[in-house]
Design goal:
transport; Probable sugar-binding periplasmic protein; SBP; signal; D-Maltodextrin-Binding Protein, domain 2; about 450 residues; 10 strands; 10-stranded mixed beta sheet; Bact_solute-bd_prot1; 18 helices; alpha/beta
Length: about 450
């Protein structure tokens, strides 16, 4: 993401009747931070990457803002990804409010000014950021700079097919990595020719949610050390890769690749777990809604991700949608009021959570009695409230570190990395060099 600068925008009287409007990116003067009056008329354009039913649910949450500002006009445009947000800023036509699914980019958004600093508004309104769980706070800021707020969150746990586990004599989900490996082998089914019919646990990288971010917390693996340097060559990461390789060798790499090639897409009714072709998997809370809609007859349970050490049990990854004020937004003060509504209004958060089946991002909303929680969704609520989750790591190079790890994982599992430690040290150097070149 390039650092973008442009000339200040002119105030457009037809778009907003506030006392003043801000020009350029993140001006911290009084005009830029003065809240609109309750009866003021103003227009806000919101861009998100939601579509279809999910876009409609977000529109409902946006419309609830009119209880506070009845004369506000909000235009919600869906299917707008980060590239389109950046292009809008570069072309001098950004939205007033932008939502992003890509928390990997928070470091770039904050450090480049792509999203404006929210500190002036937070200080003016004395907002208590302690309402947001620590892990969620961590992935919505970068090096102490807060340029975004969360809009719900995703929490990752283990899904397991009760019938497949029961057929193998297993009555409870695995709690340790050793149990996960054991249960995966016991629940795998192969045809007479050796081909895989059911995989106990699919270790293939970059497939569905088999990503380093989701697995690393289970091993206590940290992306960066106290010195700020990439720390992929540590024993925890090595253990994670050895776990994956043990399962790959059990299946046979070529055999596993043939099996994987025949599986359905992640967000389709042909998803492998829906079709009972995998016994266990890591996925987010949102999968409960997909299973209810697309595979209601599948008997499944949810649990925390198994961990390498008992004291880590209950940890996992949390990430989610973020919302900010793009550089050059015409109405930053009014934009902030809408962002604050999405960020801290309990009724709006709970309503959106019930509609999207994502996890509320404030402590009050997590405990609200209006939150719709069944047995399987409760696992993720409990994880979110448990205080052991880890937020997605923010860097000034976006998701380049994740891509580097994904590529390495593929090579490692294919047997193309002769020395695990040496290979991880090379990736450490690659990531450190990229961060150094970013200048941030």
């Amino acid at each position: 993401m390039r650092k973008i600068s442009r000339a200040a925008l002119l105030c457009v009287a037809a778009a907003v009747s506030l006392t003043a409007c801000a020009a350029g990116a993140g001006n911290n003067n009084t005009a830029a931070t003065t809240a609109p009056g309750k009866d003021d008329k103003f227009s806000l354009t919101v861009w998100s990457n939601f579509s279809g039913r999910e876009q409609d649910e977000l529109t409902k949450a946006l419309d609830s803002f009119k209880k506070k500002y009845p004369n506000a006009e909000i235009k919600h445009e869906g299917s707008q990804d980060d590239d389109k947000i950046t292009a809008g800023i570069r072309g001098g036509n950004p939205p007033d409010v932008a939502l992003s699914f890509t928390t990997d980019n928070i470091g770039q958004f904050c450090s480049s000014g792509t999203f404006q600093d929210l500190k002036p508004f937070i200080e003016r309104d004395k907002v208590d950021l302690g309402q947001i769980p620590d892990a969620v706070r961590s992935y919505t800021e970068y090096k102490g700079q807060r340029c975004a707020l969360p809009v719900l969150s995703d929490v990752y746990g283990l899904y397991y097919n009760k019938d497949i586990l029961a057929a193998a004599g297993i009555t409870t989900p695995p709690k340790t990595i050793a149990e996960l490996v054991d249960f995966a082998k016991r629940t795998t089914k192969k045809a007479a020719d050796g081909s895989i019919e059911v995989a106990g646990f699919l270790p293939s990288p970059q497939f569905y949610e088999n990503r380093a971010q989701m697995l690393a917390p289970a091993f206590g693996a940290k992306w960066f050390g106290a010195d700020g340097k990439s720390s992929l060559s540590t024993p925890e990461w090595q253990d994670m890769y050895k776990f994956q390789k043990e399962l790959v060798d059990f299946y046979g790499y070529d055999n596993l690749e043939r099996f994987r090639a025949g599986l359905g897409q992640e967000y389709s009714a042909d998803h492998a777990f829906h079709q009972q072709k995998i016994a266990m998997m890591i996925d987010g809370e949102y999968r409960t809604a997909f299973l209810k809609d697309q595979a209601p007859t599948v008997k499944y349970g949810t649990a925390p991700v198994p961990t390498a050490k008992p004291d880590l049990y209950g940890t996992g990854l949390t990430t989610g949608t973020i919302v900010g004020i793009p550089k050059g937004a015409k109405n930053p003060a009014a934009s902030w009021e809408l962002i604050k509504h999405l960020g801290f209004d309990t009724d709006a958060i709970v309503g959106l959570s019930n509609g999207l089946k994502n996890i509320p991002h404030t402590k009050a909303a997590l405990a609200d009695p209006k939150l719709e929680v069944d047995e399987n969704f409760k696992t993720f609520i409990d994880l979110a409230a448990g205080g052991k989750l880890q937020g997605n790591v923010s860097t000034p190079i976006g998701d380049a570190h994740i891509k580097a790890v994904g590529d390495f994982s593929s090579s490692w599992q294919a047997g193309a990395v002769p020395d695990l430690v040496a290979g991880l040290k090379e990736i450490d150097k690659q990531i450190d060099d990229q961060i150094a070149k970013s200048g941030k």
